[in-house]
Amino acid sequence: MTDSAEIPVETRAGFTVIRPSARLGGMEADSLAAILEPLVRQKNPLILIDLTNVNYIGSRSIGVLLAARGEADRQKGRIILGNVTPDVARVLQLARLEGYFQIVNDVDEMLARSQRIIEQKERPSPGAPTGSGQ
Questions:
Q1: Which residues are bridge partners to 89 per DSSP?
Q2: Which of 4, 83, 99, 101 is deepest in the core (most CB within 10 A)?
Q3: Are strands 46-50 and 78-82 parallel, antiparallel or unpaired?
Q4: How far is C-alpha 24 from the geometric centre of its chain's CA atoms?
Q5: What is the pTM of this model?
């Protein structure tokens, strides 16, 4: 069985970014589930699955994504699929799921935009008190 540590996970711009590689078959589905299950149980989870390097996705992995999407919805969160390869897009289309998931074509640009939004929200507005007491 594939260890879930083999699927890179990082936090960027408020999102948990998961970057599986090569294939998401049966054994990899277990690793993906081990990563996703605790994440989607949090309040307002923001999860981005970067599929840049995935050339195969099996039915068990699709089931994991569907279950995670359902739980994320219940927790008022989102699961986004990014950089979907043609092979994975074809499977999603055949399963009639291409409209079920939010899909972004450029993960890095989406994360950069999200980071800029976060930084703007963190900046004090002009004329706001600085907290210096003067």
A1: none
A2: 83
A3: parallel
A4: 15
A5: 0.83
Domain 4-108 sits in which CATH superfamily?
STAS domain (3.30.750.24)
d(CA 126, CA 129): 9
Per-residue pLDDT, averaged over 19-37, amounts to 92
What are 74-110's pLDDT values in tens digits? 999 999 999 999 999 999 999 999 889 999 999 989 9
* Tokens matching residue 44: 């307002």
Ramachandran sector of residue 56 (left: φ over 0; alpha: ψ -120 to 50; beta: rest): beta
Angle, vertex CA 7, rays to CA 2 and CA 112, nearest 5: 170
In whole angstroms, how large is the CA radius of gyration of the chain?
Answer: 17
Domain boundaries, the chain: 4-108
Token representation of residue 41: 């149980």
Q: DSSP readout, 85-101?
A: -HHHHHHHHHTT-TTTS
Q: Is 115 exposed, middle or buried (0-12, 13-18, 19+ CB in 10 A)?
A: middle
